Amino acid sequence: MLLFARSERAALLTLALVVAFPIACGFRTYPLFIATQFAVFAMVALSLDVLMGRSGQISLGHAGFFALGAYAAAILSVRYDVDLLVGVIAGAALAALGSLIVGLPATRLSGHYLGIVTLGFGVAVAQIALKWTALTNGDEGVHTHAIHLAGTVLSSPLHVYAVVFVALGAVTAFVARLPRTRLGRAFGAVRDSEIAAAAMGISVARTKVLAFVISAAIAGGAGALYAALTGFVAPEDFGIGQSLLFFAMVVVGGTASTAGTLLGALVLEGVSQAAATVGGLSLTLIGAAIVGVALFRPAGLKSLWRGGEGSR
Amino acid sequence: MLRCSGVTMRFGGLVPLDGVDLHVPERGLFLVVGPNGAGKTTLLNVISRLVTPAAGSVRFADRDLLALEPSALLDAGIARSFQKAELFVGLSALDNVLVGLDHRHLPERAARVRAIGMLEALGLGGVAHVAAGTLSHGYQKLVDLARALVSEPKLLLLDEPLAGVTAAEIPTLLAAIRDAARERAVLMIEHHLELVLDLAERVTVLDFGRTISEGPPEAVRRDPAVIRSYLGGKAVEHAW
């Protein structure tokens, strides 16, 4: 057996590209910020692929879980000046809890109906963030305190960049290993045939909820890191557009593929950044990317290399 | 070991099972036959808890099966295959078989060794790492059988294991089924009577949800009720 499957090599290459980008730019602040933001979004995209690609469910409101994590960490930072690790754990826990609201009905819903429920969840979270001003400061948002991790203040963008990339590495390793575990196989079984999964002793409902909980926890943890990166969270960061961006990253990259999802995140984040100066252009380009992939590469960018993971 | 008594199933006005009794002892091959719509698959679905009958009881090794969740059956020692294979198409053949073993919570390495052994025994060693959805129909049926057999169940339920399988693949499948029936009870639905009838210990013939004949193959073969209802006059000699 090779040390890394082809798909894993593609994942590593994508990560290496993004790590190298700010280095090539001489660690200037803006490229560092862009690369770090990519890493945060890529974690959310990977979490969404756990749900969509691995367990065959759908979420059109993943920015909601991301928001729960970001707000939990930001508010804990402002009020109690907690360590970033505590913020990440709290963010992951709150998002996981929130996922039960969606995950429990998900055991009875699928396809379009589940899409609508998750879409509604995403919208609801953003609205609550906007309206519950006593907690969230409404549209003025929450400014975090100075971020510190294990007693060290993360004073420069380079520190945050390092922390976020370690986290992305951990999430990537977890997600890439998942298909070779009992849990990952149970996800695939439930995705491909619920009756056969049940006949093989798998509790279909529990497995579906578990996929939601794990996916949301990762997205929530990424949200906490996002708060640390921007130092500021506000409702407009977590709207439908953001949910659709995460969704597009998975679809463009190719579901059930770690490397594909990372590449999808890279392409879409690159497109949004490149077009950010012209109003509306980035959304147009994202839409074009989805249509282009749907027409010419329905399996997503992962079909560029294929093999490795069970193709689907 | 398995005992169904008076199993009755209703879907609206349809009565796919109407007071069916079935007894399956601990070892051997037991065949359920009958024309399309006779209730064969419904009976298998009742035993594997995919549907709950309106009346009757299903007991297995002195346990009330109807009190169990579908996902508890494998732990109780009952595994099944599916008419349309129902493989996990996005997983490799090996992962499909591993799913059949996962409820045992074996160490990953030990589980892999056993799953690969199972695949090799059915001549599937070469496709272990191929996505199950891309395999030929016959190979899919074999993987389905491997997935059900790998946990060494006490009772194996097979729903038309030979349907759509090419002539070249049939001997492997038949040999595997015969081997399986040496160590456990195998309850099988199958239309290819010419291939399986003589392997069976006993045969149950269903028609319109009722048992019209039950006994050893040679007796059932000559039962006038079977000939009238199932085989319809002249077709008899040809079909049997």
Keywords:
heterodimer, A: mainly alpha, two-stranded antiparallel sheet, two-stranded antiparallel ribbon, 4 strands, globular, disordered C terminus, B: 240 residues, alpha/beta, Rossmann fold, 4-stranded antiparallel sheet, 10 strands
- Rg over CA atoms of chain A: 19 Å
Strand content of chain A: under 5%
What strand line-up does the widest sheet of chain B have?
6-7-8-3-9-10
Indicate the structural class of chain B: alpha/beta
Sheet with most strands of chain B: 6 strands, mixed
Succession of helices and strands of chain B: EEEHEEHEHHHEHEHEEHHH
Mean pLDDT of chain B: 91
CATH architecture of chain B: 3-Layer(aba) Sandwich
Percent strand of chain B equals 25-35%
Helix and strand sequence of chain A: HHHHHHEEEHHHHEHHH
Q: What integer value in Å does the Rg of chain B equal?
A: 18 Å
Q: What's the rounded overall pLDDT mean of chain A?
A: 88
Q: Number of folding domains of chain B? A: 1
What is the count of DSSP helices of chain B, taking H or I runs of 4+ residues?
A: 10
Query: In whole angstroms, how far apart are the ends of chain A?
Result: 22 Å
Number of strands of chain B: 10
**Proportion of helical residues of chain A:** over 70%
Uncertain segments of chain B are 233-240
Order of strands in the sheet with the most strands of chain A? 1-4
Fold and architecture overview:
- The complex is a heterodimer of chains A (312) and B (240).
- In chain A, strands 1-4 form a two-stranded antiparallel ribbon. A two-stranded antiparallel sheet of chain A has the order 2-3.
- Chain A has a domain at 29-238.
- Chain A is 72% helix and 3% strand.
- In chain A, helix 1 packs parallel to helix 12, helix 2 (29-54) crosses helix 12 (258-274) and helix 3 runs parallel beside helix 5 (111-131).
- With 312 residues, chain A is mostly helical.
- In chain A, a hairpin with a 2-residue loop joins strand 2 (148-149) and strand 3.
- The relative contact order of chain A is 0.19.
- The model of chain A is unreliable at 307-312 (pLDDT under 50).
- Chain B starts with a strand and ends with a helix.
- In chain B, helix 3 crosses helix 4 and helix 3 packs parallel to helix 5.
- The radius of gyration of chain B is 18 Å and the shape is globular.
- Chain B is built from ten helices and ten strands.
- In chain B, the strands form two sheets. A six-stranded mixed sheet of chain B has the order 6-7-8-3-9-10, sandwiched between helices.
- Chain B is of the alpha/beta class and 240 residues long.
- Chain B has a single domain (2-239), classed as P-loop containing nucleotide triphosphate hydrolases (Rossmann fold), CATH 3.40.50.
- Chain A binds chain B through residues 179-182, 185-186, 188-189, 191-193, 195-204, 256, 310-312, and chain B through 48, 50, 69-75, 79-80, 82, 86-92, 95, 98-100, 102-103, 105, 108, 131-134, 147.
